[in-house]
Amino acid sequence: MQELNILGACINGVICLYDRPCFLISNQHPNGDLYRIALRNPANKEFKVLPTSHVNCPSHVDYTYEGFKFGYDHKSSDYKVDRIVSFGDDSIVGPDRPPLVEVYTLSTDSWRQINTVLDASNLSDPCKFEIYLNGAYHWLAYRSEQPWPHGDTELIISFDMSDEVFQIIRMPELEDVSGMNLKTFSVLNDCLALIFYSAEETVTVKNFDIWMMYEYGVKESWIKQLVVGPALVGIERPLGFAKNGELLLVAN
């Protein structure tokens, strides 16, 4: 395996390595060894290459987009890798077909397909804006609640590594976030946190709005916790929160 990437966080001393973080695959390629994933324990030098799951791409599909998650099932004390595959057809205007979701379990050394509440309109990019909290992965996505291309609603999708179920979490009802067209997803005090900020390069003095969800999964529990700034000169963007609660910033 070459040009390896680390997938997610280190769990119990085990890391997940793979050769492509997120990638687009043309249907012109065969359904062969499209990715390589391995589990590695640096302490005892154990190295386990996962078997490749061969999902047949329908003939009328132009491409597939794949994303992966690495986590731990605390109920069964087992390591798992979640694979999300979305299909695209360039000839279709609007949302494509629903994604396919598979789970690899170390104890069985095999992949299996699971049911999902996801659809093509709310998959978004499962490799961006992701965090791991309470045994579940969370990432930002969109849902088309009105006929495409209007009415996109931003939301949070989570996948529980133990129960293997997806959950859709609503975003806060925002107040005035004029000019704050970007956000950072993080965890603060074991709660989901969102940091809104401006992406305008002309804005040299920035401020950030910090929201926290105090009751997990309950939309009404989002609270605007803090406004940082506006005396932030030379700051490009917020990176997220450290485990000790400190806000990490990227300077320009």
Automatic annotation (TrEMBL):
A Pfam family recorded for this sequence: FBA_1
Cleaved signal peptide residues: none
Bilayer-crossing regions: none
Limits of the F-box associated beta-propeller type domain: 35-227
Xref: InterPro entries: F-box-assoc_dom_typ1 (IPR006527), F-box-assoc_interact_dom (IPR017451), SCF_F-box_component (IPR050796)
Coiled-coil annotated spans: none
NCBIfam families the UniProt entry points to: F_box_assoc_1
Official protein name in the record: F-box associated beta-propeller type 1 domain-containing protein
Gene source species: Lithocarpus litseifolius
Lineage: Eukaryota, Viridiplantae, Streptophyta, Embryophyta, Tracheophyta
